[in-house]
Structure formats: C-alpha cells, structure tokens
Amino acid sequence: MTMTARKSPQTSSIDLAAQLNTLDWPQITAELDAQGCAVLKNLLTPDHCRAIAGLYPDDTHFRSRIVMGRHGFGRGEYKYFSYPLPDLIAQLRPALYGHLQAVANRWNEAMGIDVGYPAAHTAFLKRCHDAGQTRPTPLLLQYEAGDYNCLHQDLYGEHVFPIQVAILLSEPGRDFTGGEFVLTEQRPRMQSRAEVVPLAQGDAVAFAVHHRPVQGTRGTYRVNMRHGVSRIRSGQRHTLGVIFHDAK
Ligand SMILES: O=C(O)CCC(=O)C(=O)O
Ligand SMILES: [Fe+2]
Fold first, then answer.
1. How far is the CA of 154 from the centre of ligand 2 (A)?
2. CA 77 – CA 43 distance, rounded (Å)
3. Where does the Fe2OG dioxygenase domain lie (predicted)?
4. How many angstroms separate the alpha carbon of residue 228 from the centre of ligand 1?
C-alpha cells in the first residue's frame, strides 16, 4: 500500500500548515478539555470545500460506499477514501494530528489509559497497520433532505486516537437547512447532555471519539461521547470526516 498523495484537489502544503498555525490552539485545547469539542474556524476555503465535495461521484477516489439506511446508521450515504488520499486530505490528516496529539496524550493519562501517541502521525499509523488496521478511514458524507446520521462512535479496532475532526463542506442556509452536528455526553449515573455545534462552510469541529476525561470534585471521571447529525430539512450537505486511526 502506497501512502503517496494524489494531486487533486490542488493545494499547497505551506498554505494549509500556515492556516492551521493561525488557529488559536490554546483556546481550542481549552475547549476540548472543557466541552469535549472545539470549532476550528475557516479551516478550508470555499474553493477547497467545493473541490473535495466534488470528488463524491468519482469512485476512483474511494474504497467503499455505505448506504446508511441499510445498516441502521440513519439515512444518507458516505464513502471511505482509498490510499493514496487526495493531496489536501493527505496533508490535513497528519497536520491536524500534530496539533491534537498532546491533548490525546493528556486525556489518556487523565483516564488512566496506558497508551501514548507518538509525535508523528506516520508512527501512529504504523502501529495501526501492524495490528491489521490498514484500511483508510477519511470519509466523505453526502446527505439530502430527510437524511440524518444516528449517534455513533467511529471505532474501527483496538487502536483508537481519541479525537477526530469533521469539516462542513456545504454552506448552511444556502446549500441546506437543518442538518446540525450534534454531540451527546453520557455521564456515569447521570442523565446525558447534548451539544449542537454551529458550523459555517469550511469550519471544522474537533471532538472526542469515544471517552474523554472530566474533572469532578472527587477526581477525574470518564464520559462516553457520541456524535451524529440532525435531519437535513432541505438541500444537500457534504462533510469531510478525518479519523486518525485506520480500520480493520
Ligand atoms: O456529517 C457530519 O457532520 C458527521 C460526520 C461523521 O459522523 C464523521 O465525520 O465521523
Ligand atoms: Fe462519525
């Protein structure tokens, strides 16, 4: 399996890395710690968003297509990219990982999970691949009016990076209505809490995949997170999902 990047859609790695560096990472980290999610404003330009969403019909980019209704996942569909990933996604994935890896290590320490994450995404992917998790997980989702994504967790094997990123490629109010990104947090022996994350086109949300630590009065406890999308009321909505572990 080759990991060389494909050349479309075109983007400069310097631009993307520079764009990531302009984000307020101390603020993003603080929000991840406090809420289990954080918005990364204007991660992609509208041109990048259109270019990525425009890949959906071209099956040469993908390893599989999932019709959500067939699996009880909701309504709508998505496709997993194949390796080599399109250039922009191949750059985005390790760059985001680099900014999130310290948070992931801190979370695991706080939860007493004896797993650390190496500084480089390639090193973490090698761990996944050595354990048989070799299939790429970045995905493109497509929803039409009436579609929705049930609350779920993107776990694909033993190796899990505890934070993932979803990027809204469509413009709310213009391309679609409804279709809000939703997170729920299940607390031990308590009722669940929901959070709706407002996103504009090109914004990303970083959020907990499965568990995250919460600081309580009597120490740290673990909460169980799920994410999904409320019903699309009209139009079409595309999302790019960036998951850092690969799949079995
Ligand atoms: O469409 C969305 O906003 C959610 C996508 C999703 O479930 C994911 O990226 O894992
Ligand atoms: Fe998901």
1. 5
2. 24
3. 134-247
4. 6
Whole-number Å distance, alpha carbon 217 to ligand 1 midpoint, is 33
- CATH number of the domain enclosing 23: 2.60.120.620
Q: Atom 6, ligand 1: which residue's CA is nearest? A: 241
Q: How far apart are CA 97 and CA 164, in angstroms?
A: 9
Residue 204 lies in a domain: yes
The mean pLDDT values, 10 residues at a time, for the chain of 248 residues are 51 77 97 98 96 98 98 98 97 97 98 97 98 98 98 98 98 98 95 97 98 94 97 98 98
Give the C-alpha separation, 124 to 170, whole Å: 31
pLDDT given for residue 17 in this prediction:
84
Q: Which domain holds residue 129?
A: 13-242
Residue 223 falls inside a structural domain? yes
Task: Please name the residue whose Cα sits nearest to atom 8 of ligand 1.
Answer: 241
Whether residue 8 is contained in a domain is answered as no
The tally of domains found in the chain comes to 1
- Say yes or no: CB of residue 166 within 6 Å of ligand 1: yes
Q: Do the domain assignments include residue 230?
A: yes
Q: Quote the pTM value.
A: 0.95
